[in-house]
Amino acid sequence: MSQTAVEGAPSLPVTASKKLSFSNRYLPPLFITTILVVGHFAYGILESYERTALAIVAALVAELVLGRIFFGKWLNLASAYISGISVGILIRSPAFWPYALCSVISIMSKYVLRVKGRHLWNPSNFGICVLLFLAPETVAALTIQWGNFIWPLLVIWILGSVIIWRAKRIHISVTYVLSFLAFAFLRSWITGDPWRSEVSPITGPMYQLFVFFMITDPKTTVKSIKWQCIVVFLVAFVEMLLRLNHVVYAPLYALFLVGPTAMLIEIWLESRHKIA
Length: 276
Known about the structure:
Layout: H1 22-43, H2 49-71, H3 78-90, E1 91-92, H4 97-112, E2 114-115, E3 118-119, H5 123-134, E4 140-141, H6 150-166, H7 170-191, H8 195-199, H9 205-214, H10 225-244, H11 250-275
Antiparallel strand pairs: 1-4, 2-3
Helix pairs in contact: 1-3, 1-6, 2-3, 2-4, 3-4, 3-5, 4-5, 5-11, 7-10, 10-11
């Protein structure tokens, strides 16, 4: 599998970056920046430029400091940039401190919450969920949609599909999207709500980040292609259950619960296999 700058991908030392092509490492950061630019200028998805910049800088500084402490090297900052800009896009708060704190928590999770050398949570998913749990009166998550214009959505999905296809992880995104749509129609049948209202969340910028970066994170997904698809199907299923119970930010919470559980099961099975 080609190395890409997906959010939780290894932050290789700068000296090793020459071995990786520009397109492999820097296309994902360029793509997520495109989401930010298109989303903000078309629909105003950012709380402010200053808060987003703070989130990015905090993530970069945390990666530099922790990389130096844990590995004694200056690490490549592509994945930290993705974490920071994801926080800057997805967090909504009138205060500045949640942006910095969320980015720092996100980056720290990669170094601290590890089992047998593998970290369990997608960094920004972990940081955002922690802030939503601990400071719900101050912090919210982005819920803006792309509106009724199809072109921004098509551009983002085409670019995102090309990038994750190059990373050989498009099966994860496709499985999730198909599962989400199937469960959306099921929710519509159960609740009697119009199916369009159940499908519409996936057209928002939050879901673009979720589909192309969070659930495809190579460092926090199981190794088998078959089980990668099963896990994201379960993420969509848990999300449906949370939505039926009127839980806000259901996709973020679903990944927070299902992703690490799958990772721990895989680590446990691998350990048993080695012992046997």
